Every structure is written in C-alpha cells, then in structure tokens.
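A quick aside before the break. I want you to see a complete sequence-to-structure record at least once, exactly as it would be stored in a machine-readable document. Don't worry about memorizing anything.
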Amino acid sequence: MKQILRVWWLLIIAALVGSGLWFTDRFTPLDTAQLLDRPWVDHMPHSEREPFRVYLLSHHQGENGELAGGYIQAESSYKVHLEMMTHQEDEKEITFTFLHDNVKAVSEYRIERIPADEDDIDLKMTLARDPRTNGQSSVLYSSSEWGQRHLPKFLPTQMLSF
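That is the input. The structure line, written in tokens, reads:
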C-alpha cells in the first residue's frame, strides 16, 4: 500500500517539477500562501483501486502571465487523467480556466487548520463550487508539511533523482 502511495506522490511531484510548478520564492497573502504550491487531495487513498482527486495550484506564471496549475482525476493507482489549467485567486475566490476546452469557473474557498492525522493532513480547503464536481461543494485536504520545498514525509527525496 505505501509503495502505491509513494508511486502516486512521485507522479504528482514529477508533474509539478516537470511543469516548473513546485519551487517559488514569491510572498503571497496568508490564505493564498497556504493555497498555492501544495497538492490538495479529496482523501488519501487506502487501496490501489481507490479513486481520488488532486488539485495543484502554483505561483509559476505561464507564457501569458497566468498562474499554472493542474487537476488529477485518478480512477485507480493505475489510471489517471491530468488536466492542465490556469488560475487566479484572491483571499476569497479562485478562478479556474481549464486549458483543454477553455472552460472557466469561479469558486469561493476557505482554508482551515485541522488536527493532524496519521498522514500529516492538517489543512482543509472547502470549495463552494468545485468545477470538477458539477459546481457542488467539495472538501480537499493537504499538509502544511507539503508546501513549497517540503515533500510529504513518506516520499523519499531520492525518488526524485531520476
């Protein structure tokens, strides 16, 4: 099980690094600082066949000056869909633009600290209108440990040396 999770995090981190999304030195307001440069998952999968979703929002600016990001829909540990997007945010709302079909969506968001669990999850983000759940509210989780230059504890840094 942990091996499957390590592979998933390797894929997520490789997508971030490959797109230039992971590292940044720019300062942002409090909620935006917690929002950006970390994976936000709907839950930690506990089996290799369990589906999950991940949002990745970054400080990295694309060629048009827009901030880059990605959305991962995993049907299982063996089948994933990666969709690139751009985003803009302030302290209350995120505007998503999904690049494949140029669909735009706006959602209010709120980030809260929660007691850390066994996976170091200690941040909770509520999207009022998640663009990938037909506008329904959704809750996503992350860890303050996963921001900027810190990887999840269970992902050995030597896995990135390929």
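Two observations worth writing down. Residues 56 and 70 are 5 Å apart (CA to CA). The first strand starts at residue 38 and ends at 41. We'll return to this after the break.
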